[in-house]
Amino acid sequence: MKANFSSSSFARAMAPPHTKVAIIGSGPAAHTAAIYLSRAELKPVLYEGMLAGGTAAGGQLTTTTDVENYPGFPQGIGGPELMDQMRAQSERFGTEIITETISRVDLKSRPFRLWREYEDAESDEPAHTADAVIIATGANARRLHLPGEAEYWQNGVSACAVCDGAVPIFRQKPLVVIGGGDSAAEEAMFLTKYGSHVTVLVRRDKLRASKAMAKRLLANPKVTVKFNTVAVEIQGENKPRGLMTHLKVKNVVTNAEEVMDANGLFYAVGHDPATALFKGQVDRDEDGYIVTKPGTSYTSLPGVFAAGDVQDKRYRQAITSAGSGCIAALEAEKYLAELEDDGELELEKDKQVKKGDLQNGTNVPEYRSNPLL
Ligand code: FAD
């Protein structure tokens, strides 16, 4: 961890430290943005959070064991280890990482102003000011906090079928999905590739999924949908790192309970994007996700960029988050270059040099024109 800033009155009496670009968050999106920006010598400051929203610095992957679908690790890699490596890579190029949660932002003034949790929330003086901000605060998969959930989390219980469905403990085993929306239907159908059978538990007497999706789900011979049914208790092996083996469920109409064979339980009951902090300042959609211009990290505010799960409710993967972190870094860099008085001139000069080089027959690769790469 790099040096923090004192909250003493002496420190507050001075102007807050200023950075060209502040990154809020610490998952793959935040660290990818930090790697690109620090390599471009823009000296980003990254607030990684102190158990922000209940998740450790490093984000959602710190809550999982093996990550098998992140390229470059043919044998898989532990989630916390992958995030440690990303953090080390951010630091290697000079990112200043601050282990604090940002609790308040003012994105209406220029430069932008950021306050830290506890120390600065009530102070008028922000902890940092920044010319550009990248929001990469992620999202949290909702959990049901059922009895047995903590014991069997990642040992049968998961909140991500795409991430975990292929692991050996689920192969040719009975699996259960909880949820009645499109995500639950998609996850259940995805899991039919791996499990022997998939049961979908729906609390109400009908699916919320779109008609087409519901039709496909109900027609799938490897899927049973149990309506009016909720999970009551997760059961399994009674030993350290024991695996889930059964699920007790209850019919909410008859109150009848039964214990089903189940080696996997997948929650598909929604995600909560960590965006309360930005309410009223940056446009969010009806589910609270930051709205970005498709294919970019541009938010409703110039100079404020969003990357990762905080703006993506469809893919929600480490690799897509990392990709969007890269996009945010490139777009923030362009924005900062344009802010500088002679920034556009510099860019024009760069283009001219490139054109001249090409006319002289010098082979200048396209990507070299981008100062971040
Ligand atoms: P997140 O990982 O969500 O991290 C954001 C972090 O920012 C927060 O956790 C917090 O530490 C910090 N933060 C939040 N608010 C603040 C604040 N105000 N101030 C400072 N810091 C803050 N994906 C895969 O590709 N493969 C997998 O195998 C896989 N397995 C998964 C297993 C589980 C159990 C879960 C829950 C998810 C899994 N995913 C997997 C999905 C993947 O973890 C996410 O898509 C990815 O982590 C999203 O990255 P992100 O950068 O958007 O932010």
Average pLDDT works out at 89
CATH architecture of the largest domain: 3-Layer(bba) Sandwich
Secondary-structure-based class equals alpha/beta
Largest sheet: 7 strands, mixed
* Structural domains: how many: 2
Share of residues in strands: 15-25%
Annotated CATH homologous superfamily of the largest domain: FAD/NAD(P)-binding domain
Question: SSE layout and pairings?
Answer:
Blueprint (H helix, E strand, L loop, with lengths): L8 H5 L4 E7 L3 H12 L5 E3 L18 E2 L9 E2 H14 L3 E3 L3 E5 L5 E5 L11 E8 L3 E3 L7 H4 L4 E2 L2 H4 L9 E5 L3 H10 L5 E5 L9 H9 L3 E4 L2 E8 L7 E8 L5 E5 L2 E4 L3 E3 L30 E3 L11 H22 L3 H17 L14
Parallel strand pairs: 1-2, 1-8, 2-5, 8-19, 10-17, 11-12, 11-17, 12-13
Antiparallel strand pairs: 3-4, 6-7, 7-8, 9-18, 14-15, 15-16
Helix pairs in contact: 2-3, 2-8, 8-9
This protein binds flavin-adenine dinucleotide.
